[in-house]
Structures are given as C-alpha cells and as structure tokens.
Design the sequence.
C-alpha cells in the first residue's frame, strides 16, 4: 500500500479510560458522524476477556457505519473479533509474525520511533506507519522521542508508505501536520475527552480537507 491508495484521513484511537466516564460506544458513534473514518480500540489495562468484549461491542457500531475496526497490540482479540486489522509498536508482536499468523488481516499498522526503522522488514511488511508521537503526549509515555513537523517531513521524503500522525494532535495543528506529509491524523483525547465528540471530529475533518486542498493545488 502506498500513500495514494490509503483512503483514511481521521483516525480515532479509543479506550474507555480516554472517554472519561462517557459511554465509549456512544463516543465512537458520534465521532463517526463527525467524520472519523477509522477506529482503533486500545485497551492496555484490560484483561483479555474485557478487551474482547469491548471489541465485539464496538464492532457492532463500526459495522453499522462501515468503518474499519483496528485492534491495538492484541492479535488474539483482533482475530476473535474479526477486526479489520491491527496496530503494533516496537515492543509488541512484530508485523512479519502477524502476517504469518493472520493471513486475512486487511490493514496492518506499525509505529516507528527511529528513521532507521524505515528500512527494516517490519516496515516493509506494514500497510501504514504510525508517526508516534508527533508531539509529546500524556497518553503515550513509552516512546523514545517526539518527531515534530520536521520529523514528518523527513519520513515523508524517505518513504511512500501512508503516514498516520499521532501525539497531541489538535484541530489547530492538523493543517501543518498534513501539509508536512502525513496522510492521516490519529486523535485520542481531543475527541474522546470532550463533551461533543461529533463537533470535535467535524472540526478536525474540516482542517484536514483544507490542508488536502492546499496540497492538491501545489501539485
């Protein structure tokens, strides 16, 4: 998969904790109505049974709206829930192993933390790359460095893989992130943690479309 064949622009990374007491299924549905077109369920603290239960319930919502469901770092849950795909990082099961164990996986994401990773087998095996984090974020504390806008530009110049930016993404910085070379922005608290997820998602979507039009006009 290359950047031109990646159709997703607004990626919600969802957990019950990030929703701050709100029903995570309702948050997901509102976010979809606002323009989210890809959802990842990330439940680092849940047991297998809890994670699977949440995945199955969320899949009912995503199926209703024809939105792909991605599972974070749990191959068994992803397979059992018949998710669309999976996203992993450096300390998780690697993409080459996932391809062997789950041949029907339709979307495999891999977060990179070093430029050198662009040239390894795991990156080649993945469908898209997570640029994680763009900016420092309290929701992800196990990362090596923050890429920043220049980091996105460096990665964009080095690969044709679709790039998904995550890490303190806000509507106000979305445009520069897309213009720097990201194909998609992944959002956690700026959608999950607000009173009106639909309105928040809609605002992100408008900024993404503005940036996309600007890039198109330059090309």
Sequence:
């Amino acid at each position: 998969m290359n950047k031109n064949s990646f159709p997703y622009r607004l990626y919600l990374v969802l957990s019950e904790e990030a929703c701050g007491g709100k029903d995570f299924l309702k948050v997901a549905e509102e976010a979809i109505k606002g323009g989210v077109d890809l959802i990842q369920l990330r439940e680092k603290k849940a047991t297998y049974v809890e994670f699977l239960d949440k995945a199955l319930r969320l899949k009912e919502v995503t199926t209703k709206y024809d939105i792909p469901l991605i599972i974070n770092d749990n191959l068994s849950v992803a397979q059992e829930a018949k998710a669309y795909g999976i996203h992993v990082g450096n300390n998780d099961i690697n993409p080459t192993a996932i391809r062997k164990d789950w041949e029907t996986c339709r979307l495999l994401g891999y977060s990179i933390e070093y430029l050198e990773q662009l040239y390894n087998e795991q990156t080649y095996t993945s469908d898209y790359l997570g640029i994680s984090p763009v900016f420092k974020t309290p929701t992800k504390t196990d990362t090596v460095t923050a890429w920043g806008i220049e980091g996105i530009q460096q990665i964009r110049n080095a690969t044709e893989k679709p790039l998904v930016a995550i890490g303190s993404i806000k509507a106000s910085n979305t445009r520069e992130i897309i213009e720097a070379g990201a194909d998609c922005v992944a959002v956690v608290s700026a959608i999950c943690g607000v009173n009106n997820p639909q309105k928040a998602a809609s605002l992100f979507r408008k900024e993404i479309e503005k940036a996309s039009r600007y890039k198109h006009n330059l090309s």
Observations:
- The longest helix spans residues 197-218.
